[in-house]
């Protein structure tokens, strides 16, 4: 059952948890701050209710997430591992079950056989849970959780509030995205009142960038190209090795791409070890890059989306740029 109102979802979610003692917490592959902040924030809240929780990341989180309370208890899934035994699965910030990556690929039957609660904010989410709370207008999944926990009258500890604050702050790009509204600021204030450690989050996100990440960003920006408001660049495996960086370091490149003067849409092409290409798309309001990502089975938000293309780097650039040009042209003629 899909709900769009936390007040309406609260009862069914509470009912689903009554007989569940051991809960598996999941989020999407290549997890960002909102994914891990929402996952660990949920972990702290559920533990306070007396539940046993297993926090499982689909792949390696971004470096700054290590500052979050409870991060040391987060396990990163490795292919071939068994799915932890559980009574219920709690999935956050996942637009589709398949976005759980290798966990979904290897354990689809087990995921769908257990009671499943989904809390998300992606417009491309079509449900899939026993209970699904989806609010596509909210800037972050962390905000949906703040409202849900308030509707359930479940208290937020300082640790839970810190995790959710990081999720909210990173997904709104420090409250800069167009969908930030007064309710977002009220939720942020509520988290601070609950004891969120704002300085800990700020230091982790803005003042702990590894030198290898900056080296990679410099290499990527040296290859920056532009055309009528569209900006793009590439990150190859050779560049990652030369910089001494891992794949999560490209998040810094994406954030800088979208801040270039005159940017209307941008895309980062990242070559992966298996020969496929991961694209990260961003745009200004009015240009729907989620629709572009969906052409290759991806998804996300209208102004921030991604996908994995089963092709090499040169072919990916040749395929994606025409679709991005068309998306920009549609706004021009809209």
- Kindly state the mean pLDDT as a whole number? 95
Oligomeric nature of the chains:
single chain
Return the CATH class of the largest domain.
Alpha Beta
Structural class: alpha/beta
Sequence of strands across the biggest β-sheet: 1-7-6-5-2-3-4
Helix content: 40-55%
Roughly how many Å is the radius of gyration? 19 Å
Order of helices and strands: EHEHEEEHEEHHHHHEEHHEEHEEH
Give me the count of strands: 13
Low-confidence stretches: none
Strand content: 15-25%
In the CATH hierarchy, the architecture of the largest domain is Alpha-Beta Complex
CATH superfamily of the largest domain: inorganic pyrophosphatase (n-terminal core)
Reported by name, the CATH topology of the largest domain is: inorganic pyrophosphatase (n-terminal core)
- Helix run count: 12
Shape: globular
| Count of folded domains | 2
Which sheet architecture does the biggest sheet show? 7 strands, parallel
Distance between the termini: 35 Å
Short description:
It is built from twelve helices and 13 strands.
List the helices and strands and how they pair.
Layout lengths: L1 E2 L2 H12 L4 E5 L6 H16 L3 E6 L17 E2 L11 E5 L9 H12 L2 E5 L10 E4 L6 H12 L5 H14 L10 H12 L4 H9 L4 H12 L2 E3 L2 E6 L1 H7 L6 H8 L7 E7 L5 E7 L5 H6 L4 E3 L2 E6 L3 H20 L2
Parallel strand pairs: 1-7, 2-3, 2-5, 3-4, 5-6, 6-7, 9-10
Antiparallel strand pairs: 8-9, 10-11, 11-13, 12-13
Helix pairs in contact: 1-4, 2-4, 2-5, 4-5, 5-6, 5-7, 8-9, 8-10
């Amino acid at each position: 059952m899909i709900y769009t109102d936390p007040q309406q979802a609260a009862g069914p979610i509470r009912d689903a948890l009554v007989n569940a003692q051991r809960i598996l917490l999941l989020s999407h592959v290549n997890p960002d701050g909102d994914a891990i902040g929402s996952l660990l924030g949920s972990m702290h809240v559920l533990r306070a209710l007396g539940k046993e929780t297993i926090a499982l990341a689909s792949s390696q989180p971004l470096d700054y997430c290590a500052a979050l309370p409870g991060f040391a208890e987060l396990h990163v899934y490795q292919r071939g591992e068994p799915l932890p035994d559980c009574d219920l699965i709690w999935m956050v910030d996942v637009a589709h079950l398949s976005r759980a990556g290798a966990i979904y690929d290897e354990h689809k039957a087990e995921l769908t056989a257990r009671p499943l609660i989904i809390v998300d904010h992606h417009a491309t989410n079509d449900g899939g849970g026993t209970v699904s709370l989806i609010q596509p207008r909210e800037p972050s999944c962390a905000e949906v959780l703040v409202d849900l926990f308030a509707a359930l009258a479940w208290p937020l500890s300082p640790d839970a509030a810190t995790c959710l604050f990081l999720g909210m702050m990173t997904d709104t790009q420090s409250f800069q995205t167009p969908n930030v509204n007064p309710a977002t600021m009220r939720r942020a204030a509520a988290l601070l009142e609950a004891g969120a450690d704002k300085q800990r989050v700020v230091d982790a996100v803005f003042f702990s960038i590894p030198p290898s990440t900056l080296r990679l960003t410099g290499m990527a920006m040296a290859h920056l190209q532009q055309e009528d408001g569209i900006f793009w660049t590439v990150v190859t495996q050779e560049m990652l090795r030369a910089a001494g960086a891992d794949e999560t370091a490209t998040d810094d490149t994406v954030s800088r791409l979208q801040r270039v003067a005159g940017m209307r849409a941008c895309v980062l092409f990242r070559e992966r070890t298996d020969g496929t290409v991961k694209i990260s798309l961003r745009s200004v309001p009015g240009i729907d890059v989620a629709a572009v990502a969906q052409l290759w089975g991806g998804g996300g938000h209208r102004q921030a989306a991604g996908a994995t293309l089963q092709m090499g780097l040169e072919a990916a650039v040749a395929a994606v740029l025409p679709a991005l040009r068309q998306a920009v042209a549609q706004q021009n003629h809209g």
